[in-house]
Structure formats: C-alpha cells, structure tokens
Amino acid sequence: xxxxxxxxxxxxxxxxxxxxxxxxxxxxxxxxxxxxxxxxxxxxxxxxxxxxxxxxxxxxxxxxxxxxxxxxxxxxxxxxxxxxxxxxxxxxxxxxxxxxxxxxxxxxxxxxxxxxxxxxxxxxxxxxxxxxxxxxxxxxxxxxxxxxxxxxxxxxxxxxxxxxxxxxxxxxxxxxxxxxxxxx
Length: 184
Fold this sequence. Notes:
Organism: Thermosipho melanesiensis (strain DSM 12029 / CIP 104789 / BI429)
Keywords: Transferase
Oligomer: single chain
Number of helices: 6
Protein name: GCN5-related N-acetyltransferase
Shape: globular
GO molecular function: acyltransferase activity, transferring groups other than amino-acyl groups
CATH architecture: 3-Layer(aba) Sandwich
Radius of gyration: 16 Å
CATH superfamily: Gcn5-related N-acetyltransferase (GNAT)
Strand order of the largest sheet: 1-2-3-4-5-6-8-7
Largest sheet: 8 strands, mixed
Pfam families: Acetyltransf_3
Number of strands: 8
Helix content: 25-40%
CATH topology: Aminopeptidase
Number of domains: 1
Order of helices and strands: EEHHHEEEHEHEEH
Strand content: 25-35%
CATH class: Alpha Beta
Distance between the termini: 15 Å
C-alpha cells in the first residue's frame, strides 16, 4: 500500500468491482475517460479485467484508491504504456462522482507519480485529458504536470469536437517541486 494523508493506493479487491463499475458507468465520469463511445461496462467485462490484473506485469499496474479513515473504495488509478527503454509511462485516474473536488484525486496522483519516480525509476510521466475537463486539468497542474501539446479536435462529445491535451512531468521537476513545496 502507498499511504498519503487522506488516501491510500492499494490492490484491487473483488468487493471493489461493483462500486468501480457503477463509477465507470456514470455518464459524467465515463465521458471523461475514453475516446470511444461511452458505452456501459458489463459485469463480465469488469470481472475479466480484474482476473487479468498481474502484479508481476512489466506493462501496467492498477491501484484502487481508498479513503484511509474509513477504508472505503473511492476510485482507481493506473500506470500503462510503460516504455522502459525511453523511461516514460502514461497514467490515468478516476473517482466516483461524490468524491470529486475534495483533493483526493490530486493526492492519489501525487502518490502515483512519486511511486513511478522512486520505485520504477522512470524519467517522465504523461497523461491525456479532454479540454472540456477543466477540473482534471486544474488538478493535474496542482500535481505539477505541464501542458506539452494539443491534439486538435481529437474527440467528439455532446455534439462538438474537442481537443485532447497532453500533459507531462519529469523526474527532475518532481523532485525540485517536492523539495520546494513538500509535495507529499
């Protein structure tokens, strides 16, 4: 487990799946997560994903996000598209709607980024966020991510084309910020 002040990152448990599926099937959450059509996730799909989690993988890692005080599952985050040769990876995160705008996502992302730099020894973490997801962009900036580029009109949502913003943070930036601001 990776401990923060309010949240911890831990392994997924079978009892998390029903709540995770409910979060992901919430239209407001799902429209911020995938490029494709936000079609509901089936029970069978969630079980298959869970059964394929491999803690010894070199390709991806998934963490459940839990509120420490009450040991309640509130979302998930993960590391994927790991490029060991060039020393970077991508990350993603989601929280249940009732846990948004409380600082839990920023703290979980800080824990995840710190894990990547201190335990995986990668040099860069990047992510993609849809331009309409202003709350997520502010949260990522609070963690230390910087805008690296824009994929113009890459996603179609709510009858309109939107940009996808690519953001990243480097190991040296993380440790400079960590020294200056006591990030963790």
